[in-house]
Amino acid sequence: MTEQGQPAAPSPEQVKAMLERYLKAKVAGGAAAAVQLAEDVKHPREVNEELLFRLVDAGKDSDFGKGHHFDEIKSVEDFKRLVPLTRYDDYAGTIYEAMDKGDTEAISSIPIIHFNETSGTMGNPKGIPYSELALENHNAFGDGYLFAMAYRKLGPQVFSGRCINLTQVSLRTLKSGITYGAFSGKNMAQFKDYLPLLMTSPKEALFATADTDTRYLHMRYALADGKASYINFSFVSILLDMMRYVEDNWQMLVDDIERGTISPTVHLPASVRASLETSLEPDPERAAELRREFKRGFNRPIARRIWPDLSFLIGIAGAGFAPYTERLRRYVGFDIPIFHFGYIASEGLFSVPIDFDDPRSVLLPRGSYYEFLPLDEEDCTETLGIEDLEVGKSYEVIVTNLSGLFRYRIRDSVRCVGAYEDCPMIEFLSRIDQTVSMKGEKTTEEVLRKVSDRVAARDGFDLVDFSVYPNPDHVPARYEFLFELYHPDVEALDIERLERLTTEELSAGNPSAGRKIESNVLDRVKVYILQEQTNQLWRDLRVMKGTSPNQIKPVHIIDNPMKKRFFFELVDRELSGEEPLDGTRP
């Protein structure tokens, strides 16, 4: 006991033992979840419909349930007849009231314990309710199942070192007492003081303020730890950006590790800098190891050379992010497996992977009640069930989730890519709203992504990211591609060639657009080159405005004036062959 009669704080050894027990419990729980899933996938329709009626019963006294006669629902047919397809506006009033006053029973009788922050139209924040049942599902399959698979396939040594965790979370408590923000932040907050035992990054990077250079903090501390065992990220594009940052700044990072300092050029709040510097110590031995490997260059993958115990990577790196994954291989090689997250959204966790290095994932029959609309059938209103999906076809996803949303149009598209027993396996494609159609050509984000990647491959440049502005004011209307390149070769850059290649690839990727270009209904593609770090600056500004970093996806379609202003003001006029701006703006 302390002098004040309070229990003494646990020692670091005690805390580490506690966390090891916690991890073992997670693995054991995940193994049990895997056994449950193995049974569920043998009869997914029955499990999924059983879940539906449980959710209908939980929602019968909610505002939405009363308004749609849930007490009359006795079959799936009744459910579809009485409940229309919904969007966020159908729940917004009830949700905002619950966020303000805490009356979550108006949403569901399943307790709502959190509101996930997500961006709505024009970036307006929304609160997506998250229930105890959703938490149980997440703990079983979002953490435990993944940990258990890694433990089983790679052995216990995969968790012998700390995790390089590149997530950054924000969390606040509403006046109702319920938390709001990234759900990962709620999980991490309960271990905030003990995270350095599990993760390389300091809590000042994980729970960062907007004026903190988190790239520096994440990578400076990750490089200092030569025994890190795996890397966790939200999107693979973030890890790629981090590795490029290391390539460009390794000398500063290694010097700081050697001296036990933080470079004065790094932007940090004074209080954060002072707090971190008091705990840093010089480490010339580790600095020498790093300097030796970095001086050998980046022509061979660097990851295992600086982190010999690195076992796997884990995060979102599936079909929609495949180009980033391919570029990441330059740094991590092909011998470090990637554990792809399944299909996860603010509305819940809907699928899990079945193996390493496999972007396919199997739908969780207990993760939501699922309905699907075929994307290749216009004006189709009759939804399909989990048992009706066909391999090779793409669908809009509609969920009745574990937190009070019924027949909810997430506006995501997936493709059925196989079956695991009798349950569909899927790949996430893109947001349905992210489609360009100026003259009825309907070019999806997936096509635009493939066009950009193929142009980069044909021209031989290293693409950081791209954005597309559908310009309806140009006569004829045209697609305008904005490419950000990683250290562009200025002498080799030929804008006219890039415009020709991009027009060719757009025409091949979407023949409807190609025919319209050929007939002059659409003009040929215009290409601009963005200044370096443009996309990083976009993320930084969104964070400064309060957006959770884990919610910030690349801007691939410029669909509002704010995005248009931002990206066109950062066009590199010299590289794009354009005259400098004279004060006017696009």
Label this structure with key terms.
586 residues, alpha/beta, 4 domains, six-stranded antiparallel β-sheet, 21 strands
Strands, count: 21
How far apart the termini lie comes to 68 Å
Radius of gyration: 25 Å
User: How many alpha or pi helices?
Assistant: 20
- Helix fraction, binned, reads 25-40%
Enumerate the spans where pLDDT stays under 50 for 5 or more consecutive residues.
1-7
Judging from the principal axes of the Cα atoms, what is the shape?
globular
* Main sheet properties: 6 strands, antiparallel
What is the beta-strand fraction?
Answer: 15-25%
- Largest sheet strand order: 11-12-16-15-14-13
Task: Return the domain count.
Answer: 4
Class by alpha and beta content: alpha/beta
Mean pLDDT: 90
Write the layout of secondary structure elements.
Elements: H1 12-40, H2 44-59, H3 63-67, H4 76-82, H5 92-101, E1 112-119, E2 125-131, H6 132-154, E3 163-165, E4 171-173, E5 179-181, H7 183-189, H8 195-198, H9 203-206, H10 214-224, E6 230-235, H11 236-259, H12 270-277, H13 284-295, H14 303-306, E7 312-316, H15 322-332, E8 338-340, E9 344-345, E10 348-349, E11 351-353, E12 361-363, E13 369-374, E14 394-400, E15 408-420, E16 423-431, E17 435-436, E18 443-444, H16 445-459, E19 463-471, E20 478-485, H17 495-509, H18 511-518, E21 526-529, H19 534-544, H20 561-569
Parallel strand pairs: 1-5, 3-6, 6-7, 7-8, 20-21
Antiparallel strand pairs: 1-2, 4-5, 9-10, 11-12, 12-16, 13-14, 14-15, 15-16, 17-18, 19-20
Helix pairs in contact: 1-6, 10-11, 11-13, 11-15, 16-17, 17-18
